[in-house]
Write a structure and sequence with these properties.
The chain is of the alpha+beta class. It folds into two domains: about 1-55; about 65-135, OB fold (Dihydrolipoamide Acetyltransferase, E2P) (Beta Barrel), CATH 2.40.50. Helices cover about 35% and strands about 30% of the residues. It is built from three helices and seven strands; from the N terminus they run αααβββββββ. A four-stranded antiparallel beta sheet has the order 1-7-6-3, with no helix packed on it. A three-stranded antiparallel beta sheet has the order 2-4-5, with no helix packed on it. A hairpin with a 2-residue loop joins β4 (about 100-105) and β5. The radius of gyration is 33 Å and the shape is rod-shaped.
């Protein structure tokens, strides 16, 4: 049924325009019919474009980009380092002192509030960088 309703709307939506065009063609006014059709197409296009611009997305709604200052790196000193969670990519840990991992039993914690963990490593070997720490620069 939606197809039939759409067909009726398209066919009879411009019924007055069709009737006027029919009688104009009978009187030999082809230029008037052409101008009417062109005006209708342009008018409908501008109406749809205007409605899309008004109801469309707000392009200024994107979150602002923030700069991260890398402050230090956590280097693995022991033979066994493990993260307490499966950190991935960028993680922001809010309270200062949040446990990040354990290096041979020694706890590794965040040094400040809103600490950003930058790309935690998956290769955890002695002497390697486990994770870089940073903070947002506002």
């Amino acid at each position: 049924m939606p197809g039939v309703a759409g067909l009726l709307n398209v066919t009879f939506g411009n019924a007055p325009e069709l009737i006027i065009a029919f009688f104009a063609l009978l009187d030999g006014l082809q230029e008037v019919v052409k101008a009417t059709l062109v005006g209708s197409v342009i008018g409908n296009s501008l109406l749809v474009l205007g409605a899309a611009m008004l109801a469309g997305p707000d392009f200024d709604a994107h979150p602002r980009q923030r700069v991260i200052q890398v402050t230090e790196a956590v280097t693995i000193t022991g033979d066994k380092f493990e993260f307490v969670q499966n950190f991935r990519g960028l993680e922001v840990l809010s309270p200062k002192g949040t446990l990040i991992g354990r290096d041979n039993g020694r706890e590794v914690r965040t040094p400040y509030d809103d600490c950003v963990l930058i790309m935690p490593s998956r290769r955890l070997a002695k002497g390697q960088t486990a994770v870089r720490l940073g903070r947002y620069v506002d």
